[in-house]
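Section 4.2 – Deliverable D4.2 (structural model, holo form)

The reporting period included a commitment to supply a predicted holo structure for the target in complex with aspartic acid. Inputs used:
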Amino acid sequence: MTAAAERYATQYAEGSLLSVAHLTVAEVAGILAMTTRLEQMSPAKRSQILAGRRVALLFYESSTRTRTSFELAAKQLGATTTLISDKSSSIEKGESLKDTGLTLRALGAECIILRHNASGAASLLAKTSKLPVLNAGDGMHEHPSQALLDLRTMLAHVDGGRRKTDVNTRSLDGIVVAICGDILHSRVARSNAMLLPRLGAKVLLCGPPALLPEWASGLGPGVAIERDFDRALQQAQVVMMLRIQKERLAGLEVDLADYVERYQLRAERLPASVVVMHPGPMIRGLEIADEVADGPQSAIEEQVSHGLAVRIALLVRALGVHA
Ligand code: ASP
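Output (structure tokens):
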């Protein structure tokens, strides 16, 4: 074990997933292999795996896909779930994240899935609660389960799915993934830009300077900036579109007409072989046109299905069960 991995292991409960940076490629491969095993299992057998276990979903920010898929994942495994949202709990009265975590633990929660608007919140909760914590998006920092489901979606598409098994550092060799839009505020872009190059992909970030600062190319080896969307598309096998995160713009002005002209993904600029992805929520008519979102190259709904499958495995891993 490296010194960093040892430090991580002593600070956070085993099974936590706080950041893709903490995952080795072998662990990524293990999670994806477990995802497939659990997917192939009979529903009756799967529903016994976490029978009697308690999972808390703690959501300080809105969510549709992530929250529902974690909840349905826990239920498919037989676990009991409870949802705490900032709108209807003591969080509204000013209770701290630490105290909320300790309260959930005292009530018997064995794992907490956290979405929070502050970067670093998941690590803080994991340190203070000592429970396994799954980061379901923390501010502008990371969204590790999204990066894993995106990876699984890509692996199902490249080479007709031939690279799906035995995931290793070369699984995405030769694959260029263009990520276009509001990179600055996107935890999805960050997690993907850190994960995909470790499997051999090249990530091309695309967007205007206000939403894609120059420093973003330093997110890691294998990450570069290409401001011309058409040039990025010509090189890519996969394009991931991101919405403009209005809730985080904080005074930043974006000329929407100009943005649509330069960066909207519409049929006329989409090369025939490129797979289209989007973590959702999509703002149709802004970053993506209807004909592309609903078109034959779209893997957007598939991403949602992979999300459920991957989150089932992450919960099993978090609760320390061998499946
Ligand atoms: N659903 C993703 C997230 O929570 C992307 C987005 O909100 O635009 O980060």
